[in-house]
Structures are given as C-alpha cells and as structure tokens.
Amino acid sequence: MRILLAAFALAAAVAMPAIAQQKPTAAQAAQQERMKTCNADASHRKLKGAARQDYMSACLAGKADPNTMMKVCNEQASQDKLTSDARKTFMSSCLKKSG
Fold first, then answer.
1. pLDDT in tens, 40-76
2. Among 21, 23, 35, 68, which is most buried by a count of CB atoms within 10 Å?
3. What is the dihedral of CA 71, 29, 33, 55, to 10 degrees?
C-alpha cells in the first residue's frame, strides 16, 4: 500500500508542472488580452465601483457601444456626486476617451 501511495505521489509531482506549463488555447489567449485591454481602458476612464463593473461586463462581451458608455459615464458621474458644469465636463471627457 505504501509503495502504491508513493508511486501515486511521485506521478502527481511529475505531472503537476507539466499541467501548469500548458499554453492557453487561442480563445483563452484572446480572452486574456481582451481582459487586459478592457481593464486598462476602465482605468484610463477612471471608472470605479458599479460603473467599472458595468463597463467591464460590456467590454468583455464586446458591447461597449455609445449607449453603454453613456450609461457607464452617467453612473460614474452620479457616484462621484458631480453636478452642473463639473458633470458636463466629466461626461464629455468620459465619452471622448478611447481605449
């Protein structure tokens, strides 16, 4: 029994590094790249909280269209309690920023 257990432990120790070193599939690599791009754009736009979550969801799904951006920027302006000219300036800046 000990020999069997030791053989299993040795096989697992040899197999684990091989599994960890597998290259991601093309789809996984594309998703990782999209995640990096969306995250960088959300940071560039200085989005926080729910606005950032909404943006990341839309961006990762490939749906970061003008309507989505209006919602996200408006949500962020509300979170930041911006009013009047400060809100207009923020909205203009947020909507113009590109990835």
1. 989 988 889 999 999 999 998 888 788 888 999 999 9
2. 68
3. 10
Residue 31 makes CB contacts below 8 A (sequence gap 6+) with 60
Q: How far is CA 91 from CA 21, 41, 42, 70, in A?
A: 45, 16, 15, 8
Q: Which pLDDT belongs to residue 99? A: 44
- Do residues 42 and 59 touch, judged by C-beta distance below 8 A? yes
The domain limits of the chain are: 28-96
Contact criterion met (CB below 8 Å) for 39 and 56: yes
The three-state DSSP-derived secondary structure of the chain is: CHHHHHHHHHHHHHHHHHHHCCCCCHHHHHHHHHHHHHHHHHHHCCCCHHHHHHHHHHHHCCCCCHHHHHHHHHHHHHHCCCCHHHHHHHHHHHHHCCC
